[in-house]
Amino acid sequence: MLHWAGEEPQELRLEQIGESYARYRLHVPEAEHVMMRSLESYGQISPVVVCIQEGRYELIDGFKRLGAARKMGTLQSLVARRIETDERGAKAAIYGLNRAGGRTREIEEAWIVHALVREDGLTQVEVAELLGRHKSWVCRRLAVSEKLGPEARADLQVGLLTPTSCGCPRATKRRFWIWSAGNPSRRWNSPGSWISGWNPQAAFPSNTSFNIHVKRWRKPKAWNCPRATRG
Fold first, then answer.
1. CA distance 174 to 192
2. Where do the domains of the chain lie, and which CATH numbers do they carry?
3. 3-class DSSP state of 176
């Protein structure tokens, strides 16, 4: 449950608002551009949400509005509403505020769950209670986060990689096929999604060029090669 501060919403200068929690949200440049047009046409419609951590305002909800305002250059401040919470509660609030509007993606949920379990030391049962979800939901989100490599996560966070292109949000429902460009009959069917970190060099010579195809999982049919077996 969110605990709103008793004070009225206040204007904060852009430089007063920190973005340390942006690591739990996807950066979508297209959505930020849409927000820029909205701010130019209508101004700020609703306040952003902040909390105070270590004496500094940290943004909880409103990352697109803050990013758009900074790029515009004409806005110097945003109206903000404050909640009273600790580090764990701030992460739960990011999930709760965006879940209400249906704006969270599975990979963002996975990052929040991973932080609560691995950084804050909560058990999966405690995370489930904190977020109001079932333990199995927490377990699945944790698995998605831990299969995602650090390079892919960094690219996702800055918008260089989209959730679709890396097998998200249904990462556990996708598999990939890699085959040699010089020998199409030699293929390899992954046991999981490509983000699990499988190294194709273990199956092919170092000078082999590869073709990669990512698709939604289905029971694979036999490949057209002598040693193929049904999956």
1. 7
2. 1-85 (3.90.1530.10), 105-159 (no CATH), 171-216 (no CATH)
3. strand
Separation between Cα atoms, residue 83 and residue 5, nearest integer Å: 5
Helix 124-131 and helix 135-147, axial crossing angle in degrees, nearest 10: 110
This prediction has a pTM of 0.66
The SS3 of residue 56 is: strand
Amino acid at 131: L
Query: What's the pLDDT tens digit per position in 105-152?
Result: 888 999 999 999 999 999 999 999 999 999 999 999 998 888 776 666
Buried b / exposed e over 38-74, threshold 16 CB at 10 Å, is ebeeeebeebbbbbebeeebbbbbbbbbbbbbeeeee
| Contacts for 77 with CB less than 8 Å, ≥ 6 apart | 11, 12, 13, 14
